[in-house]
Amino acid sequence: MFRRQQQNRNAPRVPSYGRAQILDIEGRPVQQCVVKEISRSGANIVANDPKSLPRDCEIWIPHLNLSVKAHVRWRKKDRAGLQFDKPLSDLQLGATGQGWKTAI
Predict the structure, then answer these.
(1) pLDDT above 70 covers what percent of the chain?
(2) Any domain includes 55
(3) Backbone angles phi, psi at 9, to 5 degrees
(4) Is residue 90 part of a domain?
(5) Does 65 fall in a domain?
(6) Domain containing 45: what range?
(7) In the list 56, 59, 78, 81, which could disulfide-bond 73, CB 3.0-4.6 Å?
């Protein structure tokens, strides 16, 4: 199943470990999260309560000084998958290809 998921991805994911915040569509904070993987098209996050995340949201990633509109594609235990409304550029991803880390 994991191989099938990898093959069906729109963009390769880069391992990450950084703080972020989920906002509702009005820009109000919903909850903190940690970005575990990120790509041009989305992110895999760990959150305390993924079930409470609004389907349409925004993710604020302070380390990258980046705010992206997204929607929740899936939720499972303490994780959720976000799909970005617009693809990120290499510059927005940090242009490192190595992922990014911030203290949490």
Answers:
(1) 79
(2) yes
(3) -70, 145
(4) no
(5) yes
(6) 2-84
(7) 81
Distances 103 to 35, 50, 88, 100 between C-alpha atoms, Å: 12, 22, 23, 10
Q: What is the domain count for the chain?
A: 1
Please give the Cα distance from 6 to 13 (Å, whole number). Answer: 9
What residues contact residue 5 under an 8 Å CB cut-off, 6+ apart?
none
The CATH number given to whatever domain includes residue 29 is 2.40.10.220
99/1 Cα distance (integer angstroms): 24
pLDDT digits (tens, 9 = 90+) for 38-69: 999 999 999 999 999 999 999 998 877 889 99
- 20 forms beta bridges with 33
Contact partners, residue 59, CB within 8 Å, separation at least 6: 20, 21, 22, 23, 33, 35, 43, 45, 67, 68, 70, 82
In a domain, 98, yes or no: no
Question: What's the whole-number average pLDDT of the chain?
Answer: 83
| Alpha-carbon 7 to chain mean position | 19
